[in-house]
Amino acid sequence: xxxxxxxxxxxxxxxxxxxxxxxxxxxxxxxxxxxxxxxxxxxxxxxxxxxxxxxxxxxxxxxxxxxxxxxxxxxxxxxxxxxxxxxxxxxxxxxxxxxxxxxxxxxxxxxxxxxxxxxxxxxxxxxxxxxxxxxxxxxxxxxxxxxxxxxxxxxxxxxxxxxxxxxxxxxxxxxxxxxxxxxxxxxxxxxxxxxxxxxxxxxxxxxxxxxxxxxxxxxxxxxxxxxxxxxxxxxxxxxxxxxxxxxxxxxxxxxxxxxxxxxxxxxxxxxxxxxxxxxxxxxxxxxxxxxxxxxxxxxxxxxxxxxxxx
Length: 310
Description:
The structure is a single chain. This protein has 310 residues and is mainly beta. Helices cover 6% and strands 57% of the residues. It has a single domain, classed as Porin (Beta Barrel), CATH 2.40.160.60. The protein has three helices and 16 strands.
């Protein structure tokens, strides 16, 4: 069977091969959560203040004023990869914010092929045949909590359980992310999220183990009133783990949004890829967001999300 082609496909799609090198073991966890963040170039670690904060930076959960539910669906590379995210969050007393989140990344209809006569080379009369059709799915379940430490500083923690499956091969993993957010002024925030602080193991049923190396997300958010609305600038960077760009440097992401009453316009830069987004507020308790992310070699990603307050 031509499994190497299958593994190459997964590497290109960013979901990892059956047994990816440990430096890429957690790549599927870096795809983000929420269309707003994608439209802002994924520079969201300092801005996360909704139900997606359990993924981006659990410290942001202290900003919750009421319960929230977040639903997201993305068609990555024009539908080749399905990416979904679900989260429920609420404010609290002992923990000032809590969230339960589930992320899924899946690829359907993966064809395993074999030659009609495996003992002969491929030729016009010895073509590959589909032996089976399989699917891949990666899941991550986050349990998050946050506390304020004074008026300016907040800390948060997310414990996560991971399950990966490719055809009949599967794996489990457990990890911890630690986040912090510091409010310099009413419009300026600094934040950091240390992911996989214990080096998250991914244990396969084939008796092999991958390890997700720790990585650090840093971010700055600056909001100011402008033209009757509010403009927010965000900058973020990621280092450690597999966080390098084509020049083998820590990538720098940035974004800007302008919000006026019921509509928000967004633009961002995720490494060298441009992103755009639109936000609508059809109801006081509902936000709808749409994002577009350009890819240089593969087709674009479209993402839709809804955030409910109740």
